[in-house]
Amino acid sequence: MVDVSATNNEASQQSQSESSTQQHHNAQYQNDVDTPQQKQLLNLVFRSMKRTHDFFFHDYAIPPEPDTKADELWRSTKVRSEYGSVLKQVQDAKRRREEELLNLPKNASNGIVLAPPVPVPSAAPLAIGDSSSAEGTTVISGHTGWVRCVDVEPGNEWFATGGADRIVKIWDLATGKLRLSLTGHVSAVRACKVSHRHPFLFTGGEDKQVKCWDLEYNKVIRHYHGHLSAVQDLSIHPTLDILVTCARDATARVWDMRTKAQIHCFTGHTNTVASVVTQATDPQIITGSHDTTIRLWDLAAGRSIATLTHHKKSVRALTLHPSLYMFASGGADNIKQWKCPEGEFIQNLSGHNAIVNSLVCNEDGVLISGGDNGSMYFWDWKSGFCFQKEQSKAQPGSIDSEAGIFAMAFDQSGSRLITGEADKTIKMYREDETAVQVFHILPFFLNEVETM
């Protein structure tokens, strides 16, 4: 028989020991809490819990409102990236349906009188295939950016162009067909020149690079490193194996064409050097800059021998006369003629009311200036008389401000003019074979006659 009283006594003793242990722990915890650090920590914890509760109590278990703008952005991005082609097909189908509704049925009579077709003026280019032929004008398309430079090869069979699309293109001079596209520049191509003594094409771009292309293999064989900013122009010496480049870093650099070594670094300009020309006689290098000055350089000594300060605005274009010992410069103010070797000022050619971006002269003494508004002025070199004015028209799909002329070049015969323009086209002009010679009485001669 189990002793119940003994069992109860054991249970009571065990409960008393557990309660005493719990009291001991509570007393120990109370002693720990009574410290200032513990009280401060508990206070911070409770305050944080209360603040969190107050923040989220009013919208507890309520879903957030949808972000409509983010959802629209996500949907539009998904439509463009994944369903862009489908969307274009839908739009094309809608446009075709609208065009079909606008077309009149055959033999329909609704009182509309159709006028006879009007012939297009001869001066307007006709878009036919890759080129458009007008009377004396051919328009060539192919670049997808501004055409910034043009040069004709010595054999007069093809010419090269470079543009803001980073591509150098080779065109057939007779047909205007594209022969070759050269890629390698990572920014706009601003200058291209064909060597008259080697099968090389030199290009410079806004990526600070100057490249030498081997036209037999159609690849780059040399790089000329040194410019710190965009290359604006380059020129090949007619008798020496040297290359001269100018850039936005206000310097002109002379390179050994074969070894790629920098021979000289001409400093002195205080702004972008926009144009450079070279000749066999002194001064062998002439530069024009946005600092409004023209500098003549001694190639052997590597220094400036003269600074011409007649221009009041940026000098953007230079050209040498093919036979006379003279050169011309153009900018936003006017065109000036100079005599070598000292750079003696000869005369002003005023009247081209535009920023002159390009100058070119042929053996007959015809100087042509191209402006940023698409205007071309034809000057007689000796008298300075402007005997013809032309206006380049922007192609369909272009705006009027895209009629600017950036580059010009004569072919080797001097009878065809090639221009690179802002409407992404190349235009070729030829002499009018039916034109007759016209004599102009020059103003200064007329004044002398009246005085006599």
TrEMBL record:
Gene Ontology CC terms: catalytic step 2 spliceosome; precatalytic spliceosome; Prp19 complex
Key words, A-Z: Repeat, WD repeat
SMART domains tied to this protein: WD40
PROSITE patterns cross-referenced by the UniProt entry: WD_REPEATS_1 (PS00678), WD_REPEATS_2 (PS50082), WD_REPEATS_REGION (PS50294)
Gene3D superfamilies assigned to the protein according to its UniProt record, in alphabetical order: YVTN repeat-like/Quinoprotein amine dehydrogenase
Superkingdom, taxonomy of origin: Eukaryota
Chain residue ranges for the region called Disordered: 1-36
Low complexity composition-biased segments: 1-23
Any one Gene Ontology BP term: mRNA splicing, via spliceosome
Placement of WD repeats on the sequence: 140-181, 182-223, 224-265, 266-307, 349-389
InterPro entries associated with the record: Prp46/PLRG1-like, WD40/YVTN_repeat-like_dom_sf, WD40_PAC1, WD40_repeat_CS, WD40_repeat_dom_sf, WD40_rpt
Listed Polar residues bias regions: 24-36
Subunit-level organization: Identified in the spliceosome C complex. Component of the PRP19-CDC5L splicing complex composed of a core complex comprising a homotetramer of PRPF19, CDC5L, PLRG1 and BCAS2, and at least three less stably associated proteins CTNNBL1, CWC15 and HSPA8. Interacts (via its WD40 repeat domain) directly with CDC5L (via its C-terminal); the interaction is required for mRNA splicing but not for spliceosome assembly. Component of the minor spliceosome, which splices U12-type introns. Within this complex, interacts with CRIPT. Also interacts directly in the complex with BCAS2 and PRPF19.
Its biological purpose: Involved in pre-mRNA splicing as component of the spliceosome. Component of the PRP19-CDC5L complex that forms an integral part of the spliceosome and is required for activating pre-mRNA splicing. As a component of the minor spliceosome, involved in the splicing of U12-type introns in pre-mRNAs.
Similarity remark: Belongs to the WD repeat PRL1/PRL2 family.
Name listed for the protein in its UniProt record: Pleiotropic regulator 1
